[in-house]
């Protein structure tokens, strides 16, 4: 045995290393090794265990691995390996464990994957770039107990005979593109009932649709984990779950489930985690949940639950997280939940909870996060809150709290965020808060505070402090721009002053009372407008205020500006509620058409979900601190930026290394992603949606280079099969689409009828642009020559002369021919999409199918 793991080794594995002749186990994991895997490593034919995981090794796995007749364990996860799955691995019939997770491996898996692996027990490929179907041959590896193919791009359906794997205990297929639409697609669930050892099952983050049948009631009695969140599942709460008595982890979040959460859920006594957030469940929170003595996390947020929070939840003595935000709950916050000894997080924001915050909150010694924003809490902040020694986040904003801010809050030494804005708090600001050394954010804005602002600790950092909207405050740091505090009069002037005050005060009081009443009535109307004017989405979103977004973007700082359009500007920001990095789209409401664009985008996104659409997190339609209209949309941040920037900055820079440029495979995958998004919008949604402004700058890319279509400000809708025309959000008439020059369909430019064919034309133009790296508006395209004509003139013989030179340069002849075949096929699709007559263009079903075939042929033949 030679164990060199965790030794901070650097450099490359020696090409001609002299390993002991009878070496059986070689461990060089958890180092900083680079370079490629040397072929000589596989000359040690006596090896039974080889572990090179958690390094920075790159390149392909050598085919010589097939010469290892005794190898049983091969660990190579957590490196930078690339290329296709090495088929020679299948020659190692002794292999029991294969882990290639967290690399950059791509392409389809071999069709004979499990046929020659009789001893394979654990098979891990998660977090790679594999695509195509899961081979049915995998089911021939009958000893498999663990299969983890998560976080790839596998498509198709789950093999219907997966139940052949009788020893399977862990099946993880989450975060792929697997689909199930009809009874035949769902047959795998029936088959899984044969896997009597199954303990963990996850299909989270795929394209599963429809109702969950009750067939999974026959799943293994040993099943502990059932993760089906982030799909398109609908219907009532799956009744078959009632039979899964060993279940510990249940996640059905981010689907479209409706109906009530059943009382029988409280009979599954092994449950430790319940995640049902982001659905459309209604009714009461089942009181039976208090019987789950092992429950540690309960996530029911972002549904339509109503009624009171059951006080019996206080019986859950192991509960750590209670998240019920974004529902319609009312009544008081039960004092019992603060006596749970393990509670770390209580999130009840955006409900209608009223009455005072219980003084028992001080009993929650382990509580770190308290989110009670946007409720109807009244009375004062209890002094006992200062007893919560572990508290890090306190958010009590947008309530009706009154009285003074307790000085005891200065005793919470670990406090990082304190937000009590938009309440009715009065009195002075406690100086004790300035002694909190870890405090990063303090929001006291829009209250009735008065007196001098302290100048210690957090109060010196004006970028982390908000005190606006408190007219009685004075002094403080100069950058706060508050008025100076009045000078206290000396003894010699007190008599005169008191005489004057006796006359003035009654008069001022009467005037002030009238003003206060007027302001309160105005504020009440304005406050109602702020929180009642949010767009009506089909699913519940977390509520944010314009003030939250101002803080998230450092006051909409230009350093956070990442894009600007005709109606809006986009900023990068970090939500203080949970630290999420987001893209905040601020609409310039004074610009004509901006309001309409905001409504159009809300209508387009309220009921759509697809992995290739930019995920919307929430919206804000309110009044800012200056009394102006404020409208914003908050999206998931796409770290790779947009396609236009990627094409013309990274690719256009001569100093950019080839490794940073977009490969042919990446460009093809991007266009397949966009095709899938349009297919969903045109065909798979409840009513067809026409994007109307498809262009590279509206195609955003995440960390995995997966494409997401965004910006629906010009979108048009057809509500259903009975509506024959497309309309915008405010009018049923067909109007001329503004679109973008170069991408807009010719029939739209002349005032023709809006149809999905216009999007297809734009898609074809982008196909040309991404593979030619030429804008459709370049100077060369004039005097009747368009980018479409240019491709037609050179198709197919001259394609190699017009495509982006990076795609074909320095390639071997065989590879170049394969690349050229792919390019010809892709550009042919583009020519079909850009036919002048809309009726001659294919639909997106056909376009997406064609692109998938091209991708499979290209990646399958490399």
UniProtKB/TrEMBL annotation:
Intracellular or extracellular location(s): Cell membrane; Endoplasmic reticulum membrane; Membrane
Taxonomic lineage: Eukaryota, Viridiplantae, Streptophyta, Embryophyta, Tracheophyta
Membrane topology, as annotated: Single-pass membrane protein; Single-pass type I membrane protein
List of residues binding ATP: 585
Keywords (A to Z) from UniProt: ATP-binding, Cell membrane, Glycoprotein, Kinase, Leucine-rich repeat, Membrane, Nucleotide-binding, Phosphoprotein, Receptor, Repeat, Serine/threonine-protein kinase, Signal, Transferase, Transmembrane, Transmembrane helix
The organism's place on the tree of life at top rank: Eukaryota
Keyword Nucleotide-binding: yes
Keyword Kinase applies: yes
Job description of the protein: The processed protein kinase Xa21 chain released by protein cleavage after X.oryzae pv. oryzae protein Ax21 detection translocates into the nucleus where it can bind and regulate WRKY62, a transcription factor. Confers resistance to the bacterial pathogen X.oryzae pv. oryzae (Xoo).
UniProt-recorded name of the protein: Receptor kinase-like protein Xa21
